[in-house]
Design a protein that fits this description.
Length: 93
């Protein structure tokens, strides 16, 4: 996996929020407006990134799903003679 983009975006948003708090402490209203605008932009980027990656699955399915898929694939097949057990013997009279 490459760089953790989501973590970088979240840290950027947190840094901007700290900047907003600092601008309030310093009394600079124009800095507050700029920081909030950038924070809104980065929040939209984070939400868009999470939304676009929400449907991607990365890897192997869980064992229950994997067993169900295998069962569905082999449901129509008859077991071969070697796979039959003693209980499967046919009785001729």
């Amino acid at each position: 996996m490459g760089t953790p983009r989501m973590m970088i975006l979240l840290f950027g948003a947190v840094a901007l929020m700290v900047g907003a708090i600092a601008s309030l402490a310093l009394g600079s209203w124009w800095i507050l407006v700029a920081v909030l605008a950038v924070h809104a932009l980065l929040s939209a980027v984070v939400v868009a990134y999470a939304w676009s990656h929400a449907s991607t699955s990365g890897g192997k399915p869980d064992p229950v799903t994997e067993a169900r898929v295998e069962e569905e694939q082999t449901a129509g097949e008859q077991p071969s003679r070697a796979e039959r057990t003693a209980g499967d013997r046919e009785v001729f009279s």
